[in-house]
Specification:
Blueprint (H helix, E strand, L loop, with lengths): L4 E5 L4 H10 L4 E8 L5 H14 L5 E5 L2 H5 L30 H16 L3 E3 L15 H14 L7 E3 L7 H10 L22 H13 L10
Parallel strand pairs: 1-2, 1-4, 2-3, 4-5
Helix pairs in contact: 1-6, 6-7
Length: 224
């Protein structure tokens, strides 16, 4: 029996890679990657391509939405802003690395593509437990987005967002990836650098914590 088609939003990071491994158990996959002017845009694209090759994915879409760079408001896109160290982010505070309403743009592209290619699911590696606290990575946000998809697509269209990591800690994400033999060595998580991971930004710290608690070494090199 032919598998249903699903789109995975693949940034090239740890969470999106493990999401791919989960989705691959049940679905034929198509990969979507979005360049939006982020500091590590080139390195993330390398990771995306490597993971796509690993899973032998034929359906790939790489989209550029540089207007998010023009809009600014995030230290991920604005070089005049400093990417904060994880130790400087206070509990409950939304860090400057938040790209305003980014996931709405990314998922909208995925929905448009899904309608054209007949995909039934859109997988995204959002996490709410061990995360930076971005508002567009919360359960309620995706619940609302699923309602929007139903209202804004053809009556016969049946597309929904899946967030398999939403309740997992970073340790659990790493363990799940290892269990499914996801190519974690091909991923890139650093917000700041494209050659050697800084080891100090929020994304690096969360990743290192996950590997440490899982009891396995992180395959990426770090400055510190």
């Amino acid at each position: 029996m032919k598998r249903a088609l699903a789109i995975v939003l693949l940034s090239g990071g740890l969470d999106s890679c493990v999401t791919v491994a989960i989705a691959a158990q049940q679905y034929e996959l198509a990969f979507l990657h979005v360049n939006y002017g982020q500091r590590t845009e080139k390195r993330e694209l390398v990771a995306f391509s490597a993971i796509a090759d690993y899973y032998e994915i034929q359906k790939r879409l790489v989209v550029d939405i540089g207007y998010l760079l023009q809009i600014g408001g995030s230290s991920l896109t604005d070089l005049n802003m400093t990417v904060p160290k994880a130790t400087r982010i206070q509990g409950g505070e939304i860090p400057s690395t938040y790209v305003p309403f980014r996931n709405t743009h990314l998922v909208a592209i995925a929905v448009s593509w899904a309608e054209v290619i007949g995909a039934r699911k859109i997988f995204i590696g959002a996490t709410e437990v061990d995360s930076s606290g971005y508002p567009d990575c919360r359960k309620g946000y995706f619940d609302a987005y699923n309602k929007l998809i139903r209202l804004g697509t053809r009556p016969e269209t049946d597309i929904s967002i899946e967030t398999p990591l939403i309740d997992l800690s970073k340790e659990e994400v790493v363990r799940r990836g290892l269990e499914l033999k996801a190519p974690l060595h091909l991923t890139w998580s650093c917000y700041k650098n494209e050659d050697v991971a800084c080891g100090r930004c929020d994304s690096c710290i969360l990743r290192l914590k996950g590997f440490r608690l899982a009891g396995v070494p992180d395959p990426l090199p770090y400055i510190s």
